[in-house]
């Protein structure tokens, strides 16, 4: 099994092919048969995990397993206590309410690389950095959360996936997980089970009759003269 960390550059698709000719993961990771764990937006940067371990890929991508990801967001404006509290409680988006996030303001990350396309600069509008930690995976979630509390996101960097971080990786660079890192990751999430109350309910097939209205089995015939309303309800299957 292969487990690879990549620092995805700005304006690179989280896939290996693109008919429009845009930059993809193939431009940076020449390893066949691996797939990204989750997605990182075209205009976002930072940590991406790739693997050919399909079982682990599913668990790390599924928000029900609560794999936390840490982001650094450069936002327009000054971060207020009220905005932080809203992020921590969860905000209402078009897709629904987000789960509570861990959010705090922070200084600009040390030694952060310059983005290939600089952010727009406005002399009369300050920018601030936020650290936001979430386990959900809504489309463009962090950007939408920031916008919902009045802090448009100018730059977004994923810094950590669970206990894995960027380390010394520069944009476009990648490395294999160490044997100890991959062992810990597999041990932690291979053993993870969903709580009973979070199991996915099986939805009934559209148009199917409820049990009480189902026809009797072929092995049992209704008594002569009894209409459907007079029949006793069929037994529930054991």
Automatic annotation (TrEMBL):
Gene Ontology annotations of biological process type: pseudouridine synthesis; rRNA processing
The keyword Isomerase appears for this protein: yes
InterPro entries membership: PsdUridine_s_RsuA/RluB/E/F_cat, PsdUridine_synth_cat_dom_sf, PsdUridine_synth_RsuA/RluA, PsdUridine_synth_RsuA/RluB/E/F, PsdUridine_synth_RsuA/RluB_CS, RsuA_PseudoU_synthase, TruA/RsuA/RluB/E/F_N
Domain of life according to the entry: Bacteria
PROSITE patterns: PSI_RSU (PS01149)
Pfam assignment, any one: PseudoU_synth_2
Molecular-function GO terms, alphabetical: catalytic activity, acting on RNA; pseudouridine synthase activity; RNA binding
Keyword Isomerase: yes
Domain Pseudouridine synthase RsuA/RluA-like: 3-148
Keywords, in A-Z order: Isomerase
Coiled coil feature spans: none
Region Disordered: start-end pairs: 189-238
EC annotation from Swiss-Prot or TrEMBL: 5.4.99.-
SUPFAM superfamilies, per the entry: Pseudouridine synthase (SSF55120)
Chain intervals with Low complexity compositional bias: 204-217
Family recorded in the similarity comment: Belongs to the pseudouridine synthase RsuA family.
Protein name as it appears in the record: Pseudouridine synthase
């Amino acid at each position: 099994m292969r487990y690879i960390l990549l620092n995805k550059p700005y304006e690179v698709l989280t896939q290996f092919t693109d008919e429009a000719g845009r930059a993809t993961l193939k431009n940076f990771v020449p390893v066949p048969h691996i797939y990204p764990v989750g997605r990182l937006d075209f205009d976002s940067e930072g940590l991406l995990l790739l693997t050919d371990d399909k079982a682990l890929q599913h668990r790390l991508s599924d928000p029900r397993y609560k794999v936390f990801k840490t982001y650094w967001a450069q936002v327009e404006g000054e971060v207020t206590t009220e905005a932080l509290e809203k992020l921590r409680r969860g905000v209402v988006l078009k897709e629904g309410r987000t789960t509570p996030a861990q959010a705090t303001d922070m200084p600009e990350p040390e030694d952060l690389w310059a983005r290939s396309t600089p952010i727009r600069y406005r002399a009369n509008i300050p920018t601030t950095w936020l650290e936001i930690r979430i386990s959900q995976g809504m489309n463009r979630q962090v950007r939408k959360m920031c916008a919902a509390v009045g802090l448009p996101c100018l730059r977004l960097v994923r810094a950590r996936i669970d206990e894995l971080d960027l380390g010394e990786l520069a944009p476009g660079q990648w490395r294999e997980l160490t044997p100890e890192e991959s062992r810990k990751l597999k041990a932690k999430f291979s053993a993870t089970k969903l709580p009973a109350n979070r199991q996915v309910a099986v939805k009934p097939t559209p148009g199917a009759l409820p049990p009480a209205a189902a026809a009797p089995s072929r092995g049992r015939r209704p008594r002569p003269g009894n209409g459907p309303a007079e029949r006793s309800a069929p037994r529930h299957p054991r």
